[in-house]
Structures are given as C-alpha cells and as structure tokens.
Amino acid sequence: MSGTYLGMPAFPEAAREAVGNRILRDNLRHATHTIRAKRAKAVAEVSDWAELREAGKRIKDHTLRHLDRYLERLEESVTAAGGVVHWAADAAEANEIVTELVKMTGESEVVKVKSMATQEIGLNEALEAAGIRAYETDLAELIVQLGKDRPSHILVPAIHRNRGEIRDIFRSEMSEWGRPAPEGLTDTPAELAEAARLHLREKFLRAKVGISGANFMVAETGTMVVVESEGNGRMCLTLPETLISVVGIEKIVPTWRDLEVFLQTLPRSSTAERMNPYTSTWTGTTDQDGPGTFHLVLLDNGRSDTLADEVGRQALRCIRCSACLNVCPVYERAGGHAYGSVYPGPIGAILSPQLRGTGSEIDASLPYASSLCGACYEVCPVAIDIPEVLVHLRERVVEGGEATRAGNKVVLRPAKGHAAERAAMRAARWAFTHPGVLRTGQRAASRTRRFHPRTLPGPGRAWSGSRDLPPVPAEPFRDWWQRTRGQKGGAE
Amino acid sequence: MRVALFLTCVNDTLYPDTGRAVVKLLTRLGVDVDFPMAQTCCGQAHYNTGYRHEAEPLARHFSDVFGEYDAIVTPSGSCGAMVRELYPRMGERARAEGRGDTLAATLAPVVPKTYELTEFLVDVVGVTDVGAYYPHTVTYHPTCHGLRGLGLGDRPRRLLRAVKGLELVELPGADECCGFGGTFALKNSDVSAAMGADKVRNAESTGAEVLCAADNSCLMHIGGTMTRLRSGMRPVHIAEILASTEEEPAV
Amino acid sequence: MSRRRWSCWPRTLADYRAIVHRTDGEGLAGLIAGLLEKRGSASVLVPPGLDEGWLAATGVTRVADRAESTPHELDGVDSVVTACAVSIAETGTIVLDGSPDQGRRRITLVPDHHICVVRVPSQVVSSVPQGLERLDPARPLTWISGPSATSDIELDRVEGVHGPRTLEVILVSED
C-alpha cells in the first residue's frame, strides 16, 4: 500500500482524472447523497443544535488556548491511572516510539482500530519496515488495505469503491492475509460485512497488541474515548494485552462533562445516527479488564505550528466527523485521492497545507480546491469557517509572509507559478481605483465586440473549454446611465 | 433616503440590462436611485484569490464612493456578501497585522447599509408583490453567497411567487453550488465544469424555460454551460423578471 | 424524568435494531429463559454479580467469566446476560460500566447474542448529559446503541459486524 503522498500532482490535475472516471463519480455521488439527507434529518431532530455547535466551538477554542496546561494535566491523570505517556514531535518520532513499544512485547503483528493519526504518520509502513504486520480491522480500512489502495474519506476510507468492487477485492485478496472470502460471496452489504467478520475474527482472538487513536482525551480524568460502529474498536481496545494509542494533541477536552456536547454532535454529523453503536471509554488500565499495559503517544506533527496561526488554528477544532466532505460539491466530483492526503475534502484542504506547509505543489494547490460555496461551514459541528481559512491560506500561497514551521517563525516567499496572476491582480486593482481607466476599457471592449471570439485561446481555455463567453453589450451600463440620467451621477 | 445602486463591475461591463432592470424596478416602487459614476469593484475576486492587500484599496474606494448614501443596493449576492461579511474581516486582519483601526473605521460605515436587491425589496421597501408580470416557467437557483453568506432565505422565492403569470418550479439540488466560484472556475475548470453541467441537468429536469438567480457571475457560468450543452433554457437575473410588466414585458 | 420524554425510548432503542422486551420483576426469569431457548443457546456467560434469580428459569449451561479464560473460550459461548449502569432514552443507548452484574468488557463483546436488563425507571435518564453525570469515568465504559453496524459500504447502514449481532434489551418495571 502506498502510504506516502509525496510527489502527488497538484489538485486540478488529479481532479481532472477523477472527474472523467464515471464509476468513481457514480460511487461518490451515491454515497454522499445518501448520507447528506440522513445527516440533515438527524440534526433537525435536535432543537438546540445551534447552541451545541457553539458550545463545541468554545470548548475547543478554550482548550487550544491553554493546550500546554491541559496536556500536562492529561499526562498526570493518565500516568496516575496506570498508563504511560510518550511525546512525539513529528511522524518519525511517533513511528519510532510505537515500533519500539511493539518490539518490546516480542510480537510481530498488531490489530488496529481505524485511526487518522496513524494514517497521517504512515505507521503501517514504518511497522512493516520493522517486520511487524499491522492488520486494519475497520471494514473500510480493511477494503483499502486488501486493495493496496489509499483512503479517500475520513469516515469511510473506501467510499470510492462500490459493493461490486468490494466483493472482487475480498474474493481475490483475503486469502493473502488470512481466512479467504466465503465461497460464492455476493455483493450484498450484509454478506460483505459477514465476510469481514469471519476474516478478522481469528486475528482479534489471538491479538496481543492493539493500536488505536482516540476521538477525545479528557484532561481532568485521563479518560480516552473511541467512537465506532462495528465493534472492531472494542475488540482491539479490550482483548489484547498491550494497547498503544496514538493521538493528536488537539483531541483533548478539559472535563468529563465536556463530552456531553461532542457525544451529541459527532454521531449525528458523521453517520447521521443519534448515537453510534459503540463508544468505549477507558482510563489508564483496569485490573483484570482489558489490556494490562497502556501507552499513550501524544502526536504534534505540525499541530503546534498550526496553533500559532491566528486564522488557521480553528482547523484544530475538527472532530473528524466528515460532514464537510459529504456535503462538498468539489469532493463529490474530485474524490478523496485528489487531495493527496489522508485528510481529504474541505477540512483536508485547510489541514494538510498547515500540518505539512505550503511548500509542495499539492499543498499549494489545496487552498484553491474549493468554490467557497460555504456548505462545509454550514454543516461543521464545531463551526470551523473553512472558507475563511481557505482564503487565508491562498494568501499565504500567493503573498507569502510569516508562518511557523517546526516551532520557528519563518517568512515564506510567494509560491511559484502565480507571477502572471499577481501582475493581473495588480493591474486590475490599479484600473479599479481609477474609474476612468475602467471606463476606457469597457468602451474599448464594447466597440470591438463584433470581433470577440466565443471561445478563448491559451489559458482562456480554462473557461471556454466548457462554457461559452457572454457577449459584450453595445454599451456598458455607466454609459447608458450617463446618456439618460447623466445630470444625476456623482463625479468620477 | 439616498439610495445608491452598486451595480458591480461585472454587471456594469457585461450585463447592463440587469442594471437597467434594477433602476426601472426601484423607480416603479418609488425609490429614487442614484448610480455613483466613480464606482468600480468591491475587490471580491482579489480577496478570494488571496490578494487581500490588493483588495484593500478597492474596499477603501468603495467606502469613499458609497459612504454618503443611506442605503447601497446591489443585484449580486456575492458582492453584497463581500461588503457585509468580508469588509469587517479585512479591518480585523489589518488590526491584527499591527496597522491600527484605520481600515476598519474606513469600511465600517458602508457595511450595515449594503443590501442585496431582494433583501432591500423585502426588508427595506417592504414589498413582496412588486407588480411584475412574467408569463414563463421559472426555476430558481439560490447562489451560495446569497444563501449561506447573506442568509437571503426565501425572500427571492417570495418575490417570484408574487409575479403575475410566473410559474415557479423547484430546482432539484437547488442549494448545491453551480461551480462558478470566481477564479475557481479557471483554476479547477474540470470540477467547475462538472458542477455546472450537473446544475444545468437539474435545471432542465424541471421543464422550466428560465433559470433565475440573483447573481450574474453564477449565471454567466451556468448560461455559458447551457449554450455549450445546447440546452434550451435561458439564464435570467431576478431583477429582469421583477422589472418586467404587462406594459413593458421582458423578453 | 417526565413520562413524555420517555415515551420515545423503546422506539429509539428499536430504531437501531435492538429488540426490546418489557416485563416486571416476576416475569423476568421466564422471559430470559424464553429468549435463550428461542435463540437455541446452549451456553450463557454469567457476570459474577448477576442476580441469581434472573437465570432461575433456564437450564442452559452457565459459563462463569474467569480471569484466565481466553477470548477463544468466550467465542464458544452462545449468549451473555448482563445488567447495565444506565440507559439513555433520547439516543437509545445502554451503558455498561463493568460492575459485577455486567462483568468485564470482553464478555459482552465476543458472544454473538447479548441480553441486557434495564431497571425502569431507576436506570433510565433522558439525555446524554444526564447519562454522563451518572457515570464514573474511572471505570471502563461501553456505550451500546443497537447491535454492531457499519456504514462503510456506500455509506448505507448495515447491522451486524464484529460485536454481538443480536442485542435484546429487557425493560423491567420496578413499579
């Protein structure tokens, strides 16, 4: 499986391919439209949704403002409850810590609960390099792993696959990894789920090491929370002897009571359920119940840098519900892979260029992967103003300026490839601050309008490849106004 | 009440009919509207493409031109949202950059006085029946910045429903973006075109003759897609429908 | 909690395909025996502190949860009967906190059939915030809302993956 996204083409090129892929378009349209209507219904049931959304935003903002304090508190409470806390500044450090912890158990395989943080750091590849096999146990992650594929959605990483494709992957690949797919497996979702149950059962029952992320960590009590549906999470969190959780530092909430907000908003926003089938919470270790050893690896990997940015830091409020992906018209057509990151969709377009910086071609193109329609902001349960951050990051790309990278203040240079645009924007600004110039231009366009082509050459094809140009009128409005009511208009 | 028409640079240059329709409509409703000749552009394209600092002089210019009026009416949801939502944000950012309150103070007066056309009609003039006549089947596309930015709600539909002869049909997937998005249409032209084509297909499925919206930028994209796809539908700005009367019908 | 709020409760449980039964203290043992029989269960896991009387009417083999029993052994047991810590009406959720009448987390996970007894009204709250208030975060908690499910295939919900595929909730009135 390719876990790295380096060398990804910029978003528009990757998206072009996706837009032309009929099957992918149909799969994405079907899945996103299915969940959109359900989410709207689940949210409409809650009379105080707006208040919950605001409360979620405030709790997260407050926590982020005092993150250092809450992290220390968390470390104390987890340690007091029998857990061991590790700090990882970046992906390499986190992978090293986890690999060492697994090696210490003497095991050569681990079972994994779906976790964005471990995807982000490429943990499976790091473990594989150390001779440790990681089994993904979430159904969608399993589909991705068996298909040697990459995830394309936060909640449903195999959203780009339809049931027929999933059946084919199960039939051809399951035997490579363990128990083969049942004879005569069809493409009904219930049968596919059953096939996954049988395939993974043996792995759960013999597993000695489990690896997870967490949806929330409670600073006050040291409690970890994993929200899931299938029961694979419960299996990984309770049956193994050793549990290692890799969690981004922004996942913290101050108190147990703060969970009341997110346990109401997360399920409804993500799977459109009043409550997801299973939520597990644990605090350190418990005698005779669950893993006897618990390690918590706290992951920074660009989060502190993101926190330093006044506008961009709101992205850290994200609770990974994926409502913004499901409602996004760009995601629906471009698919998740085009975003070149484990975090696709609108949230990915603001998260990846902050966690990784805007240096690469793909990261510099992500802030533009949006029509700024605002649907993402509207559904976000923690009110992240994604369009605001997108525009802010566009500014960072074209104008450069101050940013924080690896804890240091740096001054970024404007990204390459925007010189012509920058010149055009400057020229337009100059014309627009000199109304006479604008008027001269409008008149020239009107006078020559008979010679205007309906399609454009060169870069103009970006418009006229799919759309006709509007005809230029005989006179601009201002000339008509002056001709008919000239005495009234203000001075130029 | 001194009312200014902020037509927007796109409408001024490419869609003068919309401007004439707004003037006709407001005049018919007894509103004396002025067109300050020094107006140019609100700076939205600059701002949204990442050139906030280039947008600032345009915002200041806007404030200079329109500051003295009691109300500023614009037939564009996105330009209206630029002034109302983003001018205050530009002021805040300038302050955060250590440039003081000057920009915020300069822009503040125009923010609450700026109204999108349908908002002005319903909230300020207080009408939903503007005495229009338009004997066509129409479907309405709520543009994103009008819908989610300004929160126009059902104002445009209420205005359209009151038009004599007009049959309003619901557009499937109405709330979905048409794919214009300013420079998005150029930078991500494939996705933009796919969104546009889906919007046109949805519009065609209604059987309406006309797709109406309150923003010509979106209509330029949708209309350009319609002609390219040889759709029989026409894009029409809501102002032109509301301005149309039995005596002087719009085509 | 008010009567009105909890009228929705059996429905919210059932919305997620939990099978809901109602009885009183006298009918409980008979109901459990009937459910185990109907299921065809040969063995049932019993948490250490489960009320003896609940299984008084069934002859199904009782399996105690011992510290040394392996997950494989648990996998051979057909059903599990537990109490719960609290139930949340609005979301159709039952919460287990590992008390002696609920047992370790693994016993309600590996068997494919879970019967959970809820005392009504003392164990029922209307909302998530009220549920949190009653729970002790120091204990390992499992919140269960219906049988295991997945939306991973085309974002459409299918019940029954790794956790118990059949969840039966018995509401025992204390009146």
From TrEMBL, chain A:
Biological processes, Gene Ontology terms: lactate metabolic process
The organism's place on the tree of life at top rank: Bacteria
4Fe-4S ferredoxin-type domain: residues covered: 315-384
LUD domain residues: 71-298
Cell division among keywords: no
Region entry Disordered, spans: 439-492
Pfam short name (any one): LUD_dom
Molecular function terms, GO-annotated: 4 iron, 4 sulfur cluster binding; metal ion binding
Alphabetical keyword list: 4Fe-4S, Electron transport, Iron, Iron-sulfur, Metal-binding, Repeat, Transport
UniProt cross-references to InterPro entries, sorted A to Z: 4Fe4S_Fe-S-bd (IPR017896), 4Fe4S_Fe_S_CS (IPR017900), FTHF_cligase-like_sf (IPR024185), Helical_ferredxn (IPR009051), LUD_dom (IPR003741), LutB/LldF (IPR004452), LutB_C (IPR024569), NagB/RpiA_transferase-like (IPR037171)
All residue ranges annotated as the Lactate utilization protein B C-terminal domain in the record: 393-483
Gene3D superfamilies, per the entry: Alpha-helical ferredoxin (1.10.1060.10), NagB/RpiA/CoA transferase-like (3.40.50.10420)
Listed PANTHER family: LACTATE UTILIZATION PROTEIN B
Name of this chain's protein: Iron-sulfur cluster-binding protein
Organism: Streptomyces viridochromogenes (strain DSM 40736 / JCM 4977 / BCRC 1201 / Tue 494)
TrEMBL record, chain B:
A single MF term (Gene Ontology): oxidoreductase activity
UniProt domain Cysteine-rich: residue ranges: 3-83, 138-222
InterPro entries per the UniProt record, alphabetical: Cys_rich_dom
GO cellular component terms given for this protein: cytosol
Taxonomy, superkingdom: Bacteria
One Pfam family matching this protein: CCG
Protein name: CoB-CoM heterodisulfide reductase
The organism of origin for this protein: Streptomyces viridochromogenes (strain DSM 40736 / JCM 4977 / BCRC 1201 / Tue 494)
Automatic annotation (TrEMBL), chain C:
PANTHER family per record: LACTATE UTILIZATION PROTEIN C
Name of this protein: LUD domain-containing protein
Domain LUD: 63-172
Superkingdom, natural source: Bacteria
